[in-house]
Design brief:
D-Maltodextrin-Binding Protein, domain 2; 11-stranded mixed β-sheet; alpha/beta; 12 helices; about 350 residues; 2 domains; globular; 11 strands; about 20% strand
Length: about 350
């Protein structure tokens, strides 16, 4: 983990730079996709689903809950491959370098992924056009939580302490300029508080650090903490959505607590490399839809505090574009002109 005690205005705003990094994708995008043969999927083959987070977090759990129904629908084995690191960059590198034949697909986290390809310091080998959206299946609002024995009982008490002791309180996040980090930055901006940000490779490691007393607060998604909140180990202080979550209706939104910030959350969806054939997209999307509607999947997701939210391919692609626009707007409001890609 890396502790980032100081984040300058410039560091925050560099997230919305040009997509110059996209030029690095040319060799990848120029490769001829290996079209899926008629009758996809071929019986006896395996579909590898890249989850760009380590095991144990909600992203990994949600993929594993879906996979048995996907296997049943598609009639072949699904293998979950965890490639955590660098705020999903490592896993997405592997995805865009894979064959566009439908047998290697990847889990996409928004707005985390745009934070990678909009940031020139990441030197990403991919851009938005490197991916073929398939479908969204989950939408998880952002949240802040402390241990249950913490002296902070609400968002105001936490932010007041961070204002009174700049840089002393440690808050965990899941990578530079990921959704969890953006939530911290927006709350700092709205309140004048100053945290020391500690970065982890996923919600699972961050939660372990919180429970172990190594950090004072965890910024992540609600599903990172909902089970522990109900079990009395942690206390969620805020849900960063437009409305309270049905999983924790007693936890107020930031706006309800007096902090007008952009609602932030993390959606999970599936995508292939650019050039993935239409047949693959349609069949995998249909399998995702069936999985989301499955009663067993619904029960397991609800038990894990994961909110199913299905979007078919065209709607998911439009939502992806909308998320890109919102992320850009965050920086434009800081006075930085974001070049058009």
């Amino acid at each position: 983990m890396r502790e980032n005690a100081r984040w300058s205005r410039r560091t925050f705003l560099v997230h919305a730079v040009t997509v110059a990094a996209a030029t690095a994708t040319a060799p990848l995008l120029s490769r001829t996709a290996h079209a899926a043969s008629a009758g996809y999927p071929i019986k006896g083959k395996t579909i590898s689903l890249i989850v760009p987070w380590p095991p144990g977090g909600p992203a990994d759990a949600s993929a594993r809950i879906l996979s048995p129904v996907l296997e049943e629908t598609l009639g072949l084995h699904i293998e979950i491959i965890n490639r955590g690191g660098a705020g999903t960059q490592l896993g997405m590198n592997e995805l865009v370098r894979s064959r566009a034949d439908g047998y290697t697909l990847g889990q996409v986290s928004l707005p985390t992924l745009p934070a990678v390809y909009f940031n020139p310091e990441r030197q990403a080998v991919f851009a938005r056009k490197s991916f073929q959206p398939i479908s969204m299946y989950l939408n998880d609002p952002g949240a802040l939580a402390v241990r249950s024995d913490s002296p902070y009982n609400d968002l105001k008490s936490l932010l007041d302490a961070a204002k009174a002791n700049p840089g002393k309180l440690k808050v965990g996040a899941t990578g530079v300029l990921t959704m969890a980090h953006l939530l911290v930055l927006l709350l700092q901006k709205a309140s004048g508080a100053k945290f020391s940000v500690v970065q982890f490779d996923g919600g699972g490691p961050g939660l372990i650090a919180l429970l172990g007393g190594h950090i004072d607060c965890l910024s992540g998604v609600l599903s990172d903490v909902v089970v522990r909140h109900k079990g009395g180990q942690v206390r969620a202080l805020v849900v960063a959505g437009k409305e309270p979550s049905p999983f924790l209706p007693d936890v107020k939104t930031a706006e309800a607590q007096g902090y007008n910030i952009y609602p932030l959350g993390s959606s999970r969806g599936w995508a292939g490399p650019a050039g993935t054939p239409k047949e693959v997209v349609e069949k995998f999307d249909a399998a995702v839809k069936r999985a989301v509607e499955d009663s067993g999947v619904k029960q397991k997701m609800e038990a894990a505090g994961l909110a199913l939210y299905y979007m078919p391919t065209e709607a998911y692609a439009a939502n992806w574009a909308e998320v890109d626009g919102i992320v850009r707007q965050l920086f434009e409001e800081e006075g930085i002109k974001v070049p058009t890609p």
